[in-house]
Automatic annotation (TrEMBL):
Annotated source species: Flavimobilis marinus
Top-level taxon: Bacteria
Keyword Endoplasmic reticulum set for record: no
InterPro entries to which the protein is assigned, alphabetical: ATP-NAD_kinase_N (IPR017438), Diacylglycerol_kinase_cat_dom (IPR001206), Lipid_Phosphate_FormReg (IPR050187), NAD/diacylglycerol_kinase_sf (IPR016064), YegS/DAGK_C (IPR045540)
DAGKc domain sequence ranges: 50-180
A GO molecular-function descriptor: kinase activity
SUPFAM superfamilies: NAD kinase/diacylglycerol kinase-like
Coiled-coil positions: none
Gene Ontology biological process: phospholipid biosynthetic process
Name of the featured protein: Diacylglycerol kinase family enzyme
Family: Belongs to the diacylglycerol/lipid kinase family.
Keywords (A to Z) from UniProt: ATP-binding, Kinase, Lipid biosynthesis, Lipid metabolism, Membrane, Nucleotide-binding, Phospholipid biosynthesis, Phospholipid metabolism, Transferase, Transmembrane, Transmembrane helix
Length: 388
C-alpha cells in the first residue's frame, strides 16, 4: 500500500468513526422501541409466563466473570420465590445445545444462555419448537440477538430480570446450508491465510445475520486479543485489511424466481438487522415477520467506494436512503423466504459472527416462529445480594 492509499484509508477511517459516533449518539437518544412486529392482525405473539417456573442457566465458563455470576443469580432466583436454578456449563465439544436439551429433560420451564453469540446460537438450537422460552444474559462482544431484542448488554441486573420475569415472544430463526463446499486446498486468503472448507450438507442456525464474502473474511481476521480489549471496534480494524479484497461473481435465486447474476463484495441473509454501535445494517428486517431480508453489498473505486458505503449504512440507520444512480458504494435490499447462491470461485461464510468455512453454493431460509425468547421486563427489583 503506497502513501496515498494509507492516507486515504486513514481519512476513510476518521469519516467512518465520526459517522459511527453520531449514529451511537442518535441511537442512545432514541426511545426504547422494543421489538417491532408485523404479525397478521397487529401486535406481538405473547405466551403466558408460568407462575412458578423452574429456571436453568447454560453458561460459557470461558467468558470473563461468568462463573462468578452464579451466587448472585441464585440469590436473585431466591428473592423472586423460585426454586434453586439448574446450572450447566458449556464445553468445547458441546457449546450449549446438549446442555439446553438436558435442562429441558430435567423439567426446566425457561433456559437462560450466559455467554456470547456462539453460546446463544447453540442454546437456541436446543430450544427450537419446544414451546419453552430462552432467556439471554449477554456476556460477549457482539451480543447481536440481545441488541435486537432491546436486552441491555451492559446492565446484567436488568438483563437477568428480563430473563426471569420478562414477557415471552415468538421469533423467527434462520438457517444457512452448505450445498457445495469449496475444498480446493491451494486457495488461501491473502490476509487471513488458510480457511477450511465448510462441510457439504452442513446446516447452521443463525438468529441475526449470515453472509458470504467480505463480512466473513472480516470476522475471520479479527484479532481475539484486540476484541477482548476494545470490543466490537476490533471488527472494524479487521475490515480495513480487506478493503482491497476481490469482488465476487455469483448467481442468486430468490424463492421460485429466475437466477440473477451479480458481482458484489458480500451477500447477507438477515433475520434482524441491528449491529453494535447503533448501526442498522438491514433497516427493513423484522425478527418475527416470517420473511428473510437479503442485502447485496458492493463497492468500486477503492477507498472512496468504501467511504460512501459507510455513509450509506449510517444514513439508513436514520431512516434515510440514497437512491441515486451510479453510486460506487451501495447496498441493495430485497426480501424472500428462501435464497440459493452459487459462488463459482468459492468464498468464506459466517453465521452470527462465526466463520463456518469456505463454500461454493449455499442455501438460506427462515423458519417462522420457531423460538420463544424473553424480551421485556415486567417488574423492577434490586438484585444486589443481601448483606451478610
Amino acid at each position: 500500500m503506497n502513501d496515498w492509499e494509507i492516507y486515504a484509508v486513514l481519512a476513510a477511517l476518521v469519516m467512518a468513526l465520526a459517522a459511527l459516533g453520531f449514529s451511537i449518539s442518535a441511537w442512545r437518544a432514541r426511545p426504547a422501541a422494543g421489538v417491532a412486529t408485523r404479525m397478521p392482525g397487529g401486535g406481538a405473539q405473547a405466551v403466558q409466563v408460568p407462575a412458578a417456573q423452574k429456571v436453568a442457566f447454560v453458561a460459557n465458563p470461558s467468558k470473563p466473570d461468568v462463573v462468578a455470576l452464579r451466587p448472585a443469580i441464585e440469590h436473585a432466583c431466591q428473592r423472586l420465590g423460585l426454586e434453586a436454578p439448574l446450572w450447566l456449563e458449556t464445553t468445547k465439544e458441546d457449546p450449549g445445545t446438549g446442555q439446553a436439551r438436558e435442562a429441558l429433560a430435567q423439567g426446566a420451564d425457561v433456559v437462560v444462555a450466559i455467554g456470547g453469540d456462539g453460546t446463544v446460537r447453540a442454546v437456541a438450537e436446543g430450544m427450537l419448537n419446544t414451546g419453552k422460552p430462552m432467556g439471554l444474559l449477554p456476556s460477549g462482544t457482539g451480543n447481536l440477538l440481545a441488541r435486537n431484542l432491546d436486552i441491555p448488554v451492559t446492565d446484567l441486573d436488568e438483563a437477568l430480570l428480563i430473563a426471569l420475569e420478562g414477557r415471552d415472544r415468538k421469533i423467527d430463526i434462520g438457517w444457512l446450508k452448505v450445498l457445495e463446499a469449496d475444498d480446493h486446498p491451494e486457495k488461501v486468503d491473502t490476509v487471513v491465510g488458510q480457511i477450511e472448507p465448510a462441510p457439504s450438507g452442513s446446516q447452521h442456525l443463525f438468529l441475526v445475520i449470515a453472509g458470504v464474502g467480505f463480512d466473513a473474511a472480516m470476522v475471520a481476521d479479527t484479532d481475539s486479543h484486540l476484541k477482548a480489549r476494545v470490543g466490537w471496534i476490533a471488527y472494524f480494524v479487521a475490515a480495513l485489511r480487506h478493503l482491497h479484497g476481490k469482488r465476487l461473481d455469483m448467481t442468486v435465486r430468490l424463492d421460485d424466481g429466475s437466477a440473477l447474476s451479480a458481482k458484489v463484495r458480500t451477500i447477507l441473509f438477515g433475520n434482524c438487522g441491528r449491529l453494535p454501535g447503533g448501526i442498522t445494517l438491514l433497516p427493513d428486517a423484522v425478527i418475527d415477520d416470517g420473511v428473510m431480508d437479503v442485502a447485496a453489498i458492493d463497492t468500486r473505486g477503492g477507498v472512496a467506494g468504501w467511504a460512501q458505503l459507510f455513509g450509506e449504512v449510517v444514513m439508513q440507520g436514520w431512516g434515510l436512503r440514497n437512491d441515486l444512480a451510479g453510486k460506487i458504494g451501495k447496498i441493495e435490499h430485497t426480501q424472500c423466504k428462501r435464497a440459493v447462491v452459487d459462488i463459482p470461485d468459492g468464498e468464506q461464510a459466517q453465521v452470527d459472527g462465526e466463520v463456518i468455512g469456505r463454500a461454493k453454493k449455499v442455501e438460506a431460509w427462515i423458519e417462522p416462529s420457531a423460538l420463544i425468547v424473553r424480551a421485556s421486563a415486567k417488574i423492577s427489583l434490586n438484585l444486589a445480594p443481601a448483606e451478610q
